[in-house]
């Protein structure tokens, strides 16, 4: 089974940049999108159900903002929209799909903002997400969470760590939360297979930044430790350029 996660930075903009052609070539069983910036009534059928995939959407109340979506070849047993906190859920940040053997959570973590004005909101989101996942595991569920975490965890996860220690996405509080998340029993799928530097998933739109690979690793798949033996491999696709993020792909053993 193959799962893909991609922050498309606007599904309508991505469609104009070849999203549907990429979708047709990908062949993934499940594709999770973040920052779709659209409601379903704004989209055509070819975007809502490409190649006959089922799709599920959690759009933000604010038009043109945030939002997540999941495409699935086979219909999940259940779908839950949001995590139960109205202040978070109004921003369209979480979808949970039950595939029987595991729960898949597609999440778009808040950005702390340049002035750190939303750091408190983000850390509250992070804590609520961790509690949500740990409760699922306590109930005997296996979980896989993917999405744009808006956090580069370690120095290896961004090109210029020394100059970014006070910048959103690499703040000590954000990184400490990820430390706790891992300590609580969640496995970073990419680092399970790849320990080398210079693997990133986001690049600024500033000229030549992406070409010089001055990036950050912000997009993840995590699984609970009890499900980690099902992880078969994970790769990034920096060659796909329809967004400032690139897709990341996880393969699960059958």
SS-based class:
alpha+beta
Uncertain parts: none
User: In percent, how much strand structure appears in the residues?
Assistant: 25-35%
What number of domains? 1
Roughly what percent helix?
A: 10-25%
Average pLDDT reading? 98
Q: Could you explain how this protein is built, in words?
A:
This protein has 254 residues and is α+β, with helices and mostly antiparallel strands. The protein has a single domain, classed as Deoxyribonuclease I, Chain A (4-Layer Sandwich). It has seven helices and 14 strands. The strands form three sheets. It has a six-stranded mixed β-sheet. The chain has a six-stranded mixed β-sheet with strand order 5-6-7-8-12-9. Strands 10-11 form a two-stranded antiparallel ribbon. Helix 5 runs parallel beside helix 6. The longest helix has 20 residues. The radius of gyration is 17 Å and the shape is globular. The relative contact order is 0.16. The mean pLDDT is 98.
For this entry, give a set of tags.
single chain; 254 residues; Deoxyribonuclease I, Chain A; six-stranded mixed sheet; 14 strands; globular
């Amino acid at each position: 089974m193959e799962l893909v996660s991609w922050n498309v930075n606007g599904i309508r903009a991505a469609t104009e940049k070849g999203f549907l052609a990429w979708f047709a070539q990908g062949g993934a069983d499940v594709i999770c999108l973040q920052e779709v910036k659209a409601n379903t009534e704004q989209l055509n059928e070819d975007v809502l159900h490409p190649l006959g995939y089922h799709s599920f959407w959690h759009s933000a109340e604010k038009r043109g903002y945030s939002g997540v979506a999941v495409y699935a070849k086979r219909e999940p047993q259940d779908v839950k929209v949001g995590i139960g906190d109205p202040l978070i859920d109004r921003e369209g940040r979480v979808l949970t799909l039950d595939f029987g053997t595991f729960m898949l959570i597609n999440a778009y973590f808040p950005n702390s903002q340049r002035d750190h004005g939303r750091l408190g909101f983000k850390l509250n989101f992070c804590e609520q997400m961790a509690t949500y996942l740990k409760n699922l595991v306590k109930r005997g569920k296996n979980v896989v969470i993917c999405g744009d975490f808006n956090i580069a965890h370690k120095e290896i996860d961004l090109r210029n760590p020394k100059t970014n220690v006070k910048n959103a996405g690499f703040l000590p509080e954000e990184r400490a939360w990820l430390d706790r998340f891992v300590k609580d029993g969640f496995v970073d799928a990419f680092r399970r297979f790849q320990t080398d530097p210079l693997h990133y998933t986001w690049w600024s739109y500033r000229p030549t930044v992406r070409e010089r690979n001055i990036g950050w690793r912000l997009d993840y798949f995590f699984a609970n430790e009890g499900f980690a033996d099902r992880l078969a491999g994970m790769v990034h696709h920096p060659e796909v350029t329809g967004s400032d993020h690139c897709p990341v792909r996880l393969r699960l053993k059958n």
